[in-house]
Amino acid sequence: MPLALRLGPDDDVLIATRDIAPGSALPGAPGVVAASIPAGHKVAARDIPANAPVRRYNQVIGFATRDIRAGEHVHLHNLAMRDFERDYAFCADLRADSRPDAALTFNGIVRPDGRVATRNYIGVISSVNCSATVCRQIADAFRGDALSAYPNVDGVVSITHKAGCGMASQGEAIDLLRRVTAGYLRHPNFAAVLFIGLGCESNQVSALLGAESLVESDRLRAMTIQETGGTRSTIQRGIELVRELLPAANAVQREPVPVSHITVGLQCGGSDGYSGITANPALGAAMDLLVAHGGTAILSETPEIYGAEHLLTRRAVSREVGEKLVGRIRWWEGYTSRLGGEMNNNPSPGNKAGGLTTILEKSLGAVAKAGTSNLADVFEYAQPVTSHGLVFMDTPGYDPVSATGQVAGGANVICFTTGRGSVYGCKPSPSLKLATNSAMYRRMTEDMDINCGAILDGELTVQQAGEQIFRRIVEVASGARTKSEEHGMGEDEFAPWILGPTM
Fold this sequence. Notes:
four-stranded antiparallel β-sheet, seven-stranded parallel β-sheet, single chain, alpha/beta
């Protein structure tokens, strides 16, 4: 393995593959290393004058704040974010669709309406924080061996949150919460759901059902604590209702269905300098395979594609789709400005410790998760994803909030790349964790599903790692458990995006 990598022929920086000692010679670059360079960090490949753009991936990641000599560490002390013109070149890089000769299948659960599930849970979902404890205690009654007579049921899951009141009963904020909640109530990975409110909250159970055109049925039961007679009575009634739902939920069998029924939400968290070299491009290669088989990949985290959106608009299927993406970028610029922030508040301290300096650099690595497929559509947060192929959903960069929107939109698998070692689950959808480097994978092997650090180690190519990820997605969609599922993660990570003031 070389001491450092140049990712693009015009790059001004190299990426250290391991800690580099002062005085070390750099491959293909003049001079020697001036001071210690941590693994994953950048080192100047040539002299860079003050105020000049600095390139990685052949793209601008920031501007030099002073003269930088070849061999110097390039990071927060000499590189900064500035705005610059980006050529959106709508549809310029569209490519012809490709389809494999043979249709690939996985073992899914076909619901009566034709949708396909990758898991088979019963959900107990709260409308408001006030009903969270009741929901949790109903689900807790079915832990351990309580479901031994129902081997086809993956569990009873409580989905709770901290909102639902202290907000207006009309307007954008509650509409968004209702859309997220309805996405979970409808999700095919729930065989049935029990929806529980307090009774006097802003997010009324009956109002949500009406606004989202949902009606009570054999798979959707609803009640409120106040009407049912209080905490104890509601828990008892909830347990009875779940017991009534279990036989039908158990009466399912997995069967071969096309891979086109898999919808993957793409996430990266705890990113490092290797994220854009190993796990993200490998996940992109896997998504190209999924899209070729008719499946759907949801790229999100709008603040973390900021500065790289022009790479997506170039492969939008129409100018309208590209303009929708740019419109969401402009919304975020206005949103952060109104709140006294800026788009470069990201990367996080952990990202910076791992070698990422600006949001431009982080975004260019994050966009690699999308592979090379055409951008088929753009959706707002938690909207039902109705298009196949690569799509974009507007979400915050905070992973639990972003993934919650993706699952509400229909993602039935989550793939999560991490360099620092994020741990994450996302019931009712399984979450696969992809490590960017082998050191972290070995340290956290009980949490990581796939080691993309093998790319850096020279054991796999990006394409080979992508094929490995794709095969594992198919296995997980067919019922194989992920590391987060083995740890029981996924209920507490439900985190709807809450807009506006808490009153």
